[in-house]
Design a protein that fits this description.
This protein is of the alpha/beta class and about 230 residues long. Helices cover about 45% and strands about 15% of the residues. The strands form two sheets. Strands 5-4-3-6-7-8 form a six-stranded parallel beta sheet, sandwiched between helices. The protein has a two-stranded parallel ribbon with strand order 1-2.
């Protein structure tokens, strides 16, 4: 039960030499909760990847016109990851803005159904880890729309955010503390409220020119936000 887990955590956490967490907000929560000072933040950041340029892999796979913008969600296709929100947003958006969902999980059938009904929604099975950066570089913008279903999600700092940046993509993220801090510090994307209205407004106003401008900042961010530096 939650009560037993909480008691066990309090008993054990005061006896560890170091507590490793993946985001600053999670670290602060543990410091405040248990009055400890031995917390270390080690973010889940990938190694520095080659400096990928935009390729045509998704244009060719899904016959997406050259002048369209491609937005990608890659990872576990599960609840709490904004999947249904993304589908509804792109269903109601311009057909020159395309959503690619690449991954695996319980909501795959939901995405596949949406893809059969909407020309601007596409699904691709998960690819090998060694191929992730290549495929992700076939998009223009990464999506990390996490829903506030728990403190863990609200304070999260997903590795997918950093994978998008390593693939050369600016990113749209939920306006949660740690993700927002990365975007604001490097000016490498956009933050949004977790709502169709907010997300649709951002997507509608994104042009190729704004992407080119953001990509300059992404190029600088990826040289800092990599495992070698971490």
């Amino acid at each position: 039960s939650k009560t037993i887990s909480s008691v066990l955590e309090k008993f054990l956490i005061e006896r560890v030499d170091r507590l490793i967490v993946v985001s600053p907000s999670i670290g602060k929560w543990y410091e405040n909760k248990y009055g400890i000072t031995n917390v270390i933040v080690i973010r889940n950041i990938p190694e520095l990847s080659p400096d990928y340029s935009r390729n045509r892999v998704f244009n060719d796979l899904f016959s997406i016109p050259e002048n369209s913008l491609i937005f990608i969600y890659q990872g576990v296709v599960n609840r709490g990851r904004g999947i249904e929100l993304l589908i509804k947003t792109f269903q109601e958006n311009s057909l020159d803005k395309h959503l690619v969902v690449m991954g695996y999980g319980p909501l795959v059938d939901t995405v596949k159904s949406a893809a059969t009904l909407n020309r601007n929604i596409h699904f691709l099975e998960a690819v090998r880890p060694s191929e992730i950066f290549y495929y992700t570089s076939g998009a223009d913008i990464g999506l990390s729309i996490i829903e506030n279903i728990s403190l863990s999600y609200y304070y999260c700092l997903p590795n997918k955010l950093f994978e998008y940046l390593q693939s050369g993509l600016p990113v749209i993220v939920s306006d949660f503390p740690d993700m927002k801090q990365i975007i604001n510090k490097f000016q490498c994307g956009w933050t949004t409220q977790v709502s169709i209205i907010s997300l649709a407004e951002i997507i509608s106003n994104i042009s190729m020119q704004t992407i080119v401008e953001k990509r300059k900042n992404v190029s600088e961010a990826r040289l800092v936000l990599n495992w070698e530096k971490e």
